[in-house]
Write a structure and sequence with these properties.
heterodimer; A: 613 residues; alpha+beta; 7-stranded antiparallel β-sheet; 6-stranded antiparallel β-sheet; 18 strands; 40% helix; B: alpha/beta; 2 domains; 7-stranded parallel β-sheet; 6-stranded parallel β-sheet
Chain lengths: 613, 356
């Protein structure tokens, strides 16, 4: 778990690598890797790799990066964890490869030497890495199947640059800051910038589950090697397994995610996902687990309060438990640092910021999170709504101009009737999974964007982003099974672009590695073959630990992880700079988005216009 | 593979695009992957070309050229259609689609900077490979098109023609009255449509430069319909005795004219690349160029010459004074990165990677 970056001056006309630039980008990520830093420069000066280290496996100097093979042909810089590295090591040793460290990094060097680019199919874990192959003059980059670890790149036509963060790449000083209209539109539509776009036109995300090759002609198009839709499709064509296998698969994932040479703690809420994981950690033999829960004074004694039920779970599994209360004063004091650490604009991540801060205060370097449980077990309302809407509006949405006309007619009236602005778009968008998903997850609808962006940005951004096509692309290989379709969309859009990305920046800002056993390719391959009826999944998860979760946890109405930020924001000094029309009463996510958007300079013109109202 | 090349300027042309086409198609003809190239130009004369290249006579009429292109696409069964100018992209894209051929589009400078008409945008987005002479032109093209950035590659102009430092020719020194003078040189067309090149900004800077370098003169090589305006400007700022309009000089005398100068300056804001910077640099001159366009590539981010904001009079004056006083070292060898050998092997690599 670290920060990585690199420069490859691949074009014959390009200047050699600017060492100072490499260091500026690398050291912008000091929080990602406070334990050590390293660099590599090729002899002829065309390649530079940087690394900031957070030591978790093989804490010795042997695990230092960038790491080169003994013959110097391969050099790797790697962010993440390979959970099956011991199995891979045994197999490689059997083939005659000799290891010089106990680190999972060295696996990557030998595996690449053995299998080339096909190596990615062998890896279980979260990763973003680059391998320089000096003999072929090729740089190979890869990102894990779920997109847990970030990887961004820029190719200006002469020089290729990559890094773990957009802001770090910009700190290098050589990349254009020209804004990307698709990034701005994507942020306001989804609440996060959908990959591969970023807020900068010159920087793109390497998509989750994709590899990238850079040779003397530059960066090729990314190649997808993993598709969640295909996992569901393949699972439906194989014999179903029974629910007994569920516990085995879950325990296996949790056990794999405990591999570390430092203690592994856990985030604990009052939900099933994190509670069950702590129970399974105990079953896997994790000693003396440190758990941490965030609480808010404002919620004491209310339904939203997580602390007492979380404490009950902690008692059940005999963990060392800490409840950390966050006050409004702390939120306001941290807000500038939150906005600074936020790599790409997003409407989430504040909760992860505080729970990570609390974990780090307790001395933890690694924490387990229940992220991914709702996507895996159908925990969102979208699992119910999307199939219903897609069916109900399928026919009317095909009648030309009916949806558009209805929306134009209803859009001005929704506020008057106290309806969500999205209601106006049900006929126009609701008839397909992609449209229904946009309605369900959208922050602003396309026709509302003029409240936050200028017209030119909207027109160009919508054309570049093509939001419905972007959503539909994830379903390309998906089966017709409604659960599989929604799970695919939630995992590849909301979880990837929002939850995982936010978890990365918010935890790394505190030098904390967060592991997600419920977002794991091996687990998905197994669970997708188990037939579960509606709501059965979460109950099965709650029962998976040898000591099942108490009924109070299972029966608790789902609230999500809520915070009192809405109230704090509305009376915060920063909020006074967010222009809101007098007639507007936007939900807090929209207020937050405008504050974040202003910080990222996405919506300068629109805000100036609003400020004059 | 057989290639059909649809060009505006044929291989005999001496303009920037004509020379680029000649270098590119020569490099392609050297590639083992290319069996033959049929060239259909709109303008310019036949050139002495590689045996693999069938250089057809030009058709300057647009319709006639289009019809010939259509007939060639139908009869010659090309594997690759190369389109040498963005304005012909819709035709080239349609022919490529009809013949299931790969489409390779070349873009140069300002013609690809602003958002073009819809049919051109669509055609660009259908190209298998777009080559741009500079990173700047590539960036501008990516601003208005949704083409995959991975398929837009940079293929800079290449340096050929034996440019190297040489002694001053006394007859030329005498012809232009440069004895005992410190000479600023610009070589480029003086076209009213290309005022971005910055001749006027150098003329405007001359009084301030002359105050510090009394023997300074400005030698302007090139001709065009903007010459009178520039002449008038030099009168206006009262330095007409320091500006020498040499007009167009023969190609074989160009290197000798570079040798006359103490600094080559062209603070342009509209270069696709600016091959003339490389020619001047190879002749051993300190170079001053603009930092807002493709000149940044020709000057290799400042390694081959000094980059100034072309719109800043202050920076132009300071750079000229420094260069004339010997404060800026020339780097003739740095321009060799753009040698034809590098260009040709890159063309071959692009061919292998994108259109094979």
């Amino acid at each position: 778990m670290c920060g990585v970056n690199g420069i490859y001056a691949y074009h014959y006309a390009a200047n050699p690598v600017d060492r100072a630039e490499l260091f500026r980008t690398r050291d912008h990520m000091a929080a990602r890797g406070p334990d050590a830093s390293g660099e590599y420069f090729s002899q002829e000066g065309r390649v530079g790799l940087g690394h900031r280290r957070l030591s978790i496996i093989d804490l010795s100097e042997n695990g230092a990066q960038p790491m080169a093979s003994r013959d110097g042909r391969f050099v790797v810089t790697f962010n993440g964890e390979i959970y099956n590295y011991r199995e891979l090591r045994a197999a490689l040793e059997h083939k005659g490869f000799v290891f010089h460290s106990q680190s999972d990094t060295e696996i990557l060097l030998h595996l690449y030497a053995d299998k080339g680019e096909a190596m990615v199919h062998e890896l279980r874990g979260m990763f973003a890495f680059a391998i320089w192959d000096a003999a072929r003059g090729v740089m190979f980059l890869a990102r894990d199947p779920y997109g847990i670890k970030p990887l961004y790149y820029s190719d200006d036509g002469w020089t290729f640059r990559f890094g773990s963060q957009v802001k770090a790449l910009l700190a290098g000083g050589a990349i254009s800051r020209d804004p990307d209209s698709a990034g701005a539109v994507g942020f306001y539509l989804f609440g996060s910038v959908p990959e591969p776009f970023t807020t900068c036109r010159s920087i793109r995300a390497l998509p989750a589950g994709a590899t990238l090759l850079v040779d003397c002609t530059g960066a090729k198009a990314p190649q997808r090697y993993y598709s969640i839709a295909e996992v569901y499709r393949d699972a439906l064509s194989t014999p179903r397994k029974n629910t007994d296998d569920l516990r085995i698969a879950l325990l296996d994932s949790v056990r794999s995610h405990l591999v570390a040479d430092v203690p592994v703690g856990a985030f604990l809420s009052s939900g099933i996902d994190s509670g069950a994981l702590v129970g399974l950690m105990r079953d896997a033999g994790a000693p003396n687990i440190q758990t941490v829960t965030i609480g808010f004074e404002e919620f004491r004694g209310k339904l939203e309060d997580e602390t007492s039920l979380a404490a009950e779970v902690a008692r059940l599994y005999e963990t060392r438990h800490t409840t950390r209360f966050v006050s409004r004063a702390e939120f306001e004091a941290d807000l500038p640092r939150i906005l600074d650490a936020m790599d790409q604009p997003t409407i989430d991540g504040v909760n992860t910021w505080f729970v990570s801060k609390a974990a780090r205060e307790l001395g933890l370097k690694v924490a387990i999170s229940g992220l991914g449980g709702d996507e895996l077990f159908g925990g969102y309302p979208s699992f119910r709504d999307l199939p219903r809407w897609a069916q109900a509006f399928s026919l009317p949405s095909r009648i030309p101009f009916l949806g558009l006309g209805t929306r134009k007619l209803l859009a001005p009236l929704t506020g008057f009737f106290g309806l969500s602005p999205k209601a106006a778009g049900m006929l126009e968008y609701g008839g397909s999974y992609a449209g229904a998903y946009l309605l369900r997850r959208g922050l602003y609808m396309p026709w509302e964007l003029e409240a936050v962006l200028d017209r030119e940005t909207i027109v160009q951004g919508l054309r570049r982003l093509a939001p419905l096509r972007l959503i539909d692309a994830e379903l390309r290989s998906a089966p017709s099974n409604p659960f599989a379709r929604v799970a695919t969309l939630e995992s590849t859009l909301y979880m990837r672009n929002q939850l995982l990305r936010d978890t990365d920046w918010a935890s790394m800002a505190h030098s904390l590695e967060v592991r997600t056993p419920l977002a794991d390719r091996t687990l998905l391959a197994r669970l997708s073959r188990i037939k579960l009826n509606e709501n059965e999944g979460k109950v099965a998860l709650a029962s998976a630990p040898s000591r099942p979760l108490p009924e109070a946890i299972i029966d608790r109405p789902k609230t999500g992880f809520t915070t009192p930020i809405d109230g704090w924001l509305r009376s915060s000094p920063s909020f006074r700079h967010v222009p809101i029309r007098a007639a507007e009463t936007p939900q807090w996510a929209r207020i937050w988005s405008r504050m974040v958007g202003a910080e990222a300079s996405l919506n300068r013109h629109a805000l100036e216009n609003l400020a004059t109202l | 593979m057989h290639m059909l090349a649809l060009l505006t300027d044929g291989l005999g042309g001496e303009g920037g695009i004509g020379r680029y086409n000649r270098h590119l198609l020569s490099a392609l003809a050297h590639s083992n992957s290319i069996a033959g190239i049929t060239v259909l130009p709109r303008f310019a004369a036949q050139a002495d070309v590689d045996g693999k290249i069938d250089h057809l006579a030009p058709s300057s009429g647009r319709l006639a050229w289009c019809l010939r292109a259509l007939r060639l696409a139908l009869t010659s069964r090309p594997d690759i259609i190369f389109c040498g100018h963005i304005y012909a992209a819709p035709l080239a894209a349609a022919l490529a689609q009809a013949r299931s051929a790969k489409l390779w589009l070349q873009v140069h400078g300002i013609e690809a900077w602003e958002r073009p008409r819809r049919p051109i945008i669509d055609a660009v987005e259908r190209a298998d490979l777009v080559t741009s002479v500079s990173r700047y032109t590539r960036r501008r093209l990516l601003e208005w098109s949704n083409v995959d950035p991975a398929s837009v590659r940079v293929l800079p102009n290449t340096l050929t023609g034996g440019y190297a430092p040489r002694p001053r020719r006394p007859d030329l020194v005498a012809r232009w009255g440069l004895e005992g003078k410190k000479t600023i040189l610009t070589v480029g067309r003086l076209a009213s449509g290309e005022r971005y090149k910055g001749h006027d900004r150098i003329i405007a800077a001359l009084p301030a430069v002359a105050a510090r370098v009394p023997s300074v003169v400005y030698l302007v090589v090139g001709s065009g319909d903007d010459m009178e305006r520039l002449r008038q400007l030099s009168l206006d700022v009262n330095i007409c005795d320091r500006v020498i309009f040499a007009g167009q000089v023969p190609q074989d005398e160009l290197a000798d004219h570079f040798a006359l100068a103490d600094v080559f300056a062209m603070p342009s804001a509209g270069e696709g690349f600016g091959i003339v910077f490389l020619e001047a640099a190879a002749c051993g001159l300190p170079i001053i160029g603009g930092d807002r366009d493709g000149s940044v590539d020709a000057l290799a981010d400042g390694r081959i010459g000094r980059l100034v904001d072309p719109l800043s009079q202050e920076q132009i004056v300071a750079a000229l004074i420094a260069a004339l006083n010997g404060g800026q070292k020339p780097f003739p060898e740095a321009a060799q990165r753009f040698a034809f050998q590098n260009f040709a092997s890159h063309v071959d690599a692009l061919l292998q990677n994108f259109v094979r």
